[in-house]
Design goal:
Blueprint lengths: L2 E5 L2 E5 L4 H14 L2 E4 L10 H13 L8 E7 L6 H9 L3 E6 L19 H10 L3 E3 L13 H16 L5 E3 L5 H9 L4 E5 L1 H5 L23 H11 L6 E3 L8 H4 L14 H11 L6 H13 L7 E10 L4 E3 L2 E3 L7 E6 L4
Parallel strand pairs: 2-3, 3-4, 4-5, 5-6, 6-7, 7-8, 8-9
Antiparallel strand pairs: 1-10, 10-13, 11-12
The structure holds N-carbamoyl-L-aspartate and zinc ion.
Length: about 350
């Protein structure tokens, strides 16, 4: 196939940050995607409908005039989440979902939930309202190996949670293991999972190839090759439980290449191209639209985009970096190239 045409895709997991970083990164996502589910892990986190509404306005102000892009907001759950505000925000269309960050699991998760049991009433209310719960699925405990955090979270936290709340709808964000993929299909249509480009393209060997590779360091960390293979099978399966969520997570170079470097891969400039590369390698381009443009909207209950886009098989170079605040962000494939290019409308 020399070109592929599909409905404008949706990115079900992005980090836009705030301020000048936000202004810099939003256009990359808006150029490729019709909508995005925006993560709330700012400092301070987005914990109320009013904060989400204000953040949404700042995002919209950063969208270039010629692009049609809809940000969908999420609420950062904490030990103090106000259920009334959460549900009102969902009912009013301000919140599309709520995000559970176990305390200290990732960037800005220091405000996260310290006891799942203590906010069980929040999950009960969300289950009642049909509001999706998005999880950063890692159990952070000193006796749990960092490569096993996902599986522990599935077994010890999520399986019992789904049992306690039989109508709760759940998205396992950025799954990284075969166990994560199996979990997403086990519960039928109430559980789904996003998969990032880096977890499809790489395994943990890539973190150490020729030396330490801080720009491939993200949470959850890359896993073994057999998990990468399971994720590739899941993403290209066409099953409604799997959809595109880049987890594009910009950090400036000085914060990544540091003694205690930040986790996150900035994939927004080449996101669709990176996924296309995987689907092409798996001879699954026919199932690309399901993963990128249909399954996510179906789970969240909004219509797929009506516009079509075409990507052609044509190599394009990827910029080494994107300047921001006297520093820069290094994108996925920065300084390299990708094999697909968005055909510009004439
Ligand atoms: C994300 C970030 O930087 O906000 N980092 C990451 O490595 N994925 C947070 C997250 O989604 O875990
Ligand atoms: Zn994320």
């Amino acid at each position: 196939m020399e070109s592929i045409t599909f409905r404008r895709p949706v990115d079900l997991h992005v980090h836009f940050r705030d301020g000048s970083m936000l202004d810099k990164v939003v256009p990359f996502t808006a150029r490729q995607f019709a909508r995005a589910i925006v993560m709330p892990n700012l400092t301070p986190p987005v914990t109320s409908a009013a904060m989400a509404q204000a953040y949404r306005q700042r995002i919209l102000a950063a969208v270039p005039d010629d692009l049609d892009f809809t940000p969908m907001m999420t609420c950062y759950l904490t030990d103090q989440t106000d259920v009334t505000d959460l549900l009102a925000g969902y009912r009013d269309g301000i919140f599309a979902a709520a995000k559970l960050y176990p305390a200290h699991a990732t960037t800005n998760a220091q405000f996260g939930v310290t006891s799942i049991a203590a906010i069980d009433h929040v999950f009960a209310a969300m289950a009642d309202a049909g509001m999706p719960l998005l999880t950063h699925g890692e159990l952070v405990r000193h006796d749990v190996d960092i490569f096993d955090r996902e599986q522990y979270f599935l077994d010890e936290v999520l399986a019992p949670l789904l049992e306690r709340h039989p109508t709760l709808r759940l998205v396992l964000e950025h799954i990284t293991t075969s166990e994560g993929a199996a979990f997403a299909t086990r519960y039928g249509s109430r559980v789904a999972a996003t998969i990032t480009p880096q977890h499809l393209l790489f395994n943990r060997n890539a973190l150490f190839e020729g030396g330490l590779r801080p720009h491939l360091y993200c949470m959850p960390i890359l896993k073994r090759a057999r998990h990468q293979q399971a994720l590739r099978a899941a993403a290209t399966s066409g099953l409604p439980n799997f959809f595109l969520g880049t987890d594009t997570a910009p950090h400036v170079r000085s914060a990544k290449e540091a003694d205690c470097g930040c986790a996150g891969v900035f994939s927004a400039p080449v996101a669709v191209e990176a996924y296309l590369c995987v689907f092409d390698q798996e001879a699954a381009l026919a199932r690309f639209e399901a993963f990128a443009s249909l399954n996510g909207p179906a789970f969240y209950g909004f219509p797929p985009d009506q516009q079509l886009v075409t990507y052609i098989r044509q190599r394009q170079p990827v910029a080494l970096s994107v300047a921001v605040d006297n520093d820069e962000i290094v994108p996925l494939f920065g300084g390299g190239s990708v094999d697909w290019t968005l055909r510009q409308k004439v």
